[in-house]
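This week, study the protein below.
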Amino acid sequence: MDDGVRMTTRRGLLRSMGVAFGAIALVAVSAQGSAHARPSGPSDADVELVLLHGTKADKPLLPKDFPELTSPPWNAYNHYEVLSNKRLALLSGKTVTEPLPDGSTLETTMLEKDKAEKYKLEIVVKDGKGAQVSKGKYSAGKGARFMPVTLPYKGGILVVSLKVM
């Protein structure tokens, strides 16, 4: 083998090894990043988000899983339709943003989970222009439903209902 061919082969081998080591390093960094991107365990919470449209109607309708709608202030409306039902996966300190049918957004952040299995959540509603309409902090145990905010919507109200799963 002459020196020119040997040099080309050696460079090609070194280049291939460099590419291989670079690919291995990239895979290792990606795997490490994805492991930290979604930690599992006690800081996670699943929350059921139900959006209801309440109106005054001749024909009353109350969803069976919402007995609280028969009490004030909810009973000002007698007809409630479920617009959507979605499960939100919350990570401690991370905000999940959901669009609402009136053009506003709901931002839900899990602040912490205490030893008594109570979840502390911050709920922020912003209008279509990004201005804050409502903000509050709530504490709820698993299975607890709360309705932190209502908004005017199509001649009635839009009710935001959250339940820690």
User: Anything to note?
Assistant: The radius of gyration is 26 Å. The helical segments are 3-37. Residues 74 and 85 are 19 Å apart (CA to CA). The chain has two domains: 1-37, 45-54+84-164.
